[in-house]
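Query protein
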Amino acid sequence: MSGGVDSAVAAARAAEAGHDVTGVHLALSANPQSFRTGARGCCTVEDSRDARRAADVIGIPFYVWDLADRFRQDVVEDFVAEYAAGRTPNPCLRCNEKIKFAALLDKALALGFDAVCTGHYARILTRADGSRELHRSADMAKDQSYVLGVLDERQLAHAMFPLGDTDTTKADIRAEAERRGLAVAAKPDSHDICFIADGDTQGFLAKRLGQAEGAIVDETGARVGTHTGAYGFTIGQRKGLRIGTPAPDGKPRYVLDISPVDNTVTVGPAQALDVTELTAIRPRWCGAEPAGPATYTAQTRAHGDDVPVTAELRDGELRVTFTAPVRGIAPGQAVVLYDGTRVVGSATIAGTDRTGRPVTV
């Protein structure tokens, strides 16, 4: 229970369905006062109090579990290391993989619980043989299956998502919370990165990685600007480049490449971001591993479009080919494969091929 409306309603629905429910709030910071205040995050002292009040209204036991050390190691340090390597990580996806459905689930099972129930918008369907499938939410506008694509068959066997099974909007969820007497009914959604208190990702990284002046160059290698750390950029970025020299055609320029080795950022036109293929590592499957090449749809960003692809495993790496070029794919992000609404699996993007020019970081 994060302290938000989704997890509160999920807990209420699970209890109403007859399950023996215990509310758990995760303490993910050794100093929670340093996390953002108010309702923007999900890791504050205020959030834990909101979660406790919701549990009291529902009538279930409530505990705070300290997973700060695991969160720092598996999520925060991974986040910093990925940016230092020139990649763009997704900390929410890593938290689901390493914390909520690993550290938390392992502790829950050891204590005799059967499942971890969350307020994610996704569905779990059970096949005739008893195995389980992860599917997109009935409400596509709130679908969160992308950040759950790292869950394997064992984790899915011990997961519950009560909000994903019904075609209800966020407004419906808030109305339900109000009917149930939950004070979080009107609480704003959390956003940004929960462990960056002021929302300044670049400032957060600068404190941990230091500042070092580097060059911003165009596709010819000509220097067009400077920066104080390549980690402050991501592939496809347009704003905040601080380039003093306009492009010859007068059109905006975008980040094409990030080289942490020589601290160089390369910029160029939008069409240079078109990706035709990608290679992804550390694949995780929501069920059996696919056999041979097959046709799927793929999502490469948390709020990205679903696009048709062909994909296959080669020597433990996932090779994905797009039927039409896709723009602005960043190494470090996840590619999640779908068969209709079913989540096939997820892998971390390691390199891309842009109109015949491979890019790997």
Observations:
- The CA atoms of residues 107 and 113 lie 9 Å apart.
- The two ends are 37 Å apart (CA to CA).
- The first helix runs from residue 5 to 16.
- The first strand starts at residue 23 and ends at 27.
